[in-house]
Design a protein that fits this description.
By secondary structure, the chain is α+β, with helices and mostly antiparallel strands. The strands form 3 sheets. Strands 11, 12, 13, 14, 15, 16, 17, 18 and 19 form a 9-stranded mixed sheet that branches. Strands 2-1-5-4-3 form a 5-stranded antiparallel sheet.
């Protein structure tokens, strides 16, 4: 009779709603996330606008400085072309423009080896630079000079030659009707100071990718070239004069990047600010909010931990009970201490344990009389009255001279002896996936392939033969130390045949038995009986040998005319499995089992119920 389940007073749902509500009210997670997103968006917009503003301001100041240097140099060159007072004009010019190192004019004629050149001696002396480096630079940049004569204004990095942040400004200049290139060498420190070195860093670059001005002067001295970087390359390929974008460099670092192309010199000012640096303040605020949320959650967890004891302790007990049930211990000593769903579940667990215990007792008892696999399927309702045709391998084994053995033993000794023997033999059947169909006195009938199969008829047949070999080994172990009337040495014969059978529940609704019937079964029984006249212990028919013969060491015996068969049946004695230790020939096998080799020509093959003849 099913026990009436108790009424739920405090539903778990109410408890969970209370806990979740408290967590949602106390947790700042959602607010933190929302604030972080909104603030991050504002910071991003501000950073982009600030970066773009700094870039445009730096570009404007660079253009002013470069225009002033060019204008002053042009005035000087125009004055010299008219008056020719080179020394006095140059001294006065350099006094007012101390950042300019030299001014020169490179002629277009190939033989012009001594172009007009004005040197700021004070600049070279104070920086300990050799003035001859001016001529070296002009010779090394002949291509740029030619480009300048064709009308381009060019900015070059002269720092690698002078080992000092110096720029060379080349622009076209006409003197006496000749196309020449004016070259101005000047210090880039004023531009470096203008660009600054704050959060947003600006630098000057020409169309060849050469770094002209940068806060890191070592890069300028080394003649760094950024022409291959994706951002610089896309800048010069773009028709936009100025632009603000977000890009990632080759090192995987993200930047807000802005550029402004100058109106002359084929140069551009680039301003960068590191993405993570922009959001560092936002990240710090987010971390503080997370810590605050963590603190609130910690307090909530403490509260929930104490509150949840009423749930967690019973659940742990149920979990332990589930493990005990899994291990086969169905008698539970649980008691419901609450009247909520946990209490009702505890009562149900106890009832379930009792039901499983009863089922296990039934299955264990049922399994002792029939095969455990069949018992399990029968209890699940998977076996019904009727049968089906299956291809299986049938096995028979029989104890030789069992009648004479039993006559020398007391009834209880016979039972003890048979139980010990059958336990070992059935274990071999179980290990190889077979099913013990029935015990016929001292005989064992087994089936491979019904009701379960190893996957194929060949696998079932091989498992059956493997079972017979295991039985041989188990029997040798069983006979060790035996001898005499009370403990006689046991010998058995095994017969194996493969073919179609009718398998299913045979009987009535009140009494039924799972078994296999058919000619295949009869031939397996007759095959087992042939072991005695053939002097063997395991015989298989041709049907089985065709499936597993390649895996066995076997010996074909004389064909047998079996009752009910028109043609003689080929028989094979199983000596061993290939590549296995043990007997390798039939003679070795007979010696191992102490079998006297028979004379087949004189054997009375009709002695065994006249089922066969040679």
């Amino acid at each position: 009779m099913q026990k009436t389940q108790g009424k739920v007073r405090f539903p778990i749902g109410v408890k969970l709603v209370t806990i979740i509500t408290a967590l949602l009210l106390l947790s700042l997670g959602a607010i933190t996330a929302l604030v972080s997103v909104l603030v991050s968006e504002d910071v991003r917009l501000t950073a982009e606008e600030t970066n773009f503003t700094v870039n445009r301001r730096s570009a404007a100041e660079a253009e002013i400085i470069l225009t002033m240097i060019r204008s002053n140099a042009l005035v000087l060159l125009d004055t010299l072309s008219v008056s020719g007072a080179e020394e006095r004009a140059g001294a006065a010019f350099f006094e007012r423009n101390q950042d300019i190192a030299a001014i020169g004019v490179a002629g277009a004629e190939a033989g012009d080896e001594d172009p007009l050149r004005l040197i700021n001696s004070r600049f070279f002396l104070s920086n300990e630079i050799d003035p001859s480096l001016v001529a070296v630079f002009i010779r090394e940049n002949a291509a740029a000079l030619e480009r300048c004569r064709l009308g381009d204004m060019v900015l070059l990095n002269a720092a690698p030659v002078f080992d000092l942040p110096i720029l060379a400004f080349l622009y076209p200049w006409q003197a006496g009707g000749r196309e020449e290139a004016a070259v101005i060498f000047f210090s880039s420190e004023s531009l470096t100071d203008t660009f600054g070195s704050g959060t947003s860093q600006s630098f000057l670059i020409n169309d060849e990718g050469d770094l002209l001005v940068h806060a890191d002067t070592d890069l300028v001295r080394a003649g760094a070239n950024l022409g291959d970087t994706p951002f610089i390359r896309s800048m010069w390929e773009s028709s936009e004069q100025n632009l603000q974008t977000l890009y990632t460099d080759s090192g995987g670092i993200r930047y807000f990047g802005a550029y402004s192309k100058l109106g002359f010199g084929n140069a551009a000012v680039v301003t960068n600010v590191e993405y993570d640096l922009v959001f560092e303040g936002t990240a710090a605020t987010t971390r503080r909010n997370i810590l605050l949320t963590g603190a609130v959650l910690f307090i909530s967890i403490l509260f929930i931990w104490f509150f949840s004891k009423s749930i967690s302790v019973p659940l742990k007990n149920l979990s332990a009970a589930a493990r005990r049930i899994k291990d086969g211990e169905f008698g539970l000593d649980l008691r419901a201490k609450t009247r909520d769903e946990i209490g009702v579940l505890t009562e149900s667990f106890v009832e379930m344990g009792k039901g499983l215990a009863e089922r296990e007792r039934l299955r264990d008892t049922f399994g002792r009389f029939i095969n455990e696999t069949i018992a399990e399927q029968a209890m699940k309702g998977e076996l019904t009255l009727g049968g089906e045709t299956k291809q299986v391998t049938v096995f028979f084994s029989d104890i030789r001279s069992f009648t004479s053995i039993s006559e020398r033993l007391e009834p209880h000794e016979v039972v003890e002896f048979l139980n010990d023997y059958m336990t070992r033999m059935v274990d071999c059947v179980d290990k190889t996936g077979g099913v013990v169909d029935k015990f016929i006195g001292d005989a064992v009938m087994g089936v491979w392939g019904a009701p379960v199969s190893a996957g194929s008829t060949a696998k079932d047949a091989f498992n059956c033969v493997r079972c017979a070999l295991l039985m041989r080994r188990a029997l040798l172990e069983f006979n060790r130390g035996r001898g005499g009337d009370k403990k006689p040495v046991i010998r058995i014969g095994c017969g194996i045949n493969t073919g179609d059978v009718v398998a299913g529940q045979i009987g009535s609704h009140k009494r039924m038995e799972y078994t296999v019937i058919g000619d295949t079964v009869n031939l397996a029984s007759r095959t087992e009986a042939l072991n005695k006249p053939f002097g063997t212990d395991i015989l298989i028919t041709e049907n089985t040998w065709k499936l597993v013969g390649n895996y066995l060491i076997s010996k074909e015996m004389p064909p047998v005319q079996v009752k009910g068969k028109e043609k003689p049946v080929r028989m094979f004695a199983v000596i061993n499995a290939r590549q296995a230790q043990g007997p390798q020939t039939l003679a070795d096998l007979r010696k191992l089992l102490d079998i006297v080799p028979p004379d087949l020509s004189k054997a009375n093959v009709n002695a065994e119920e006249k089922k066969y003849k040679l």
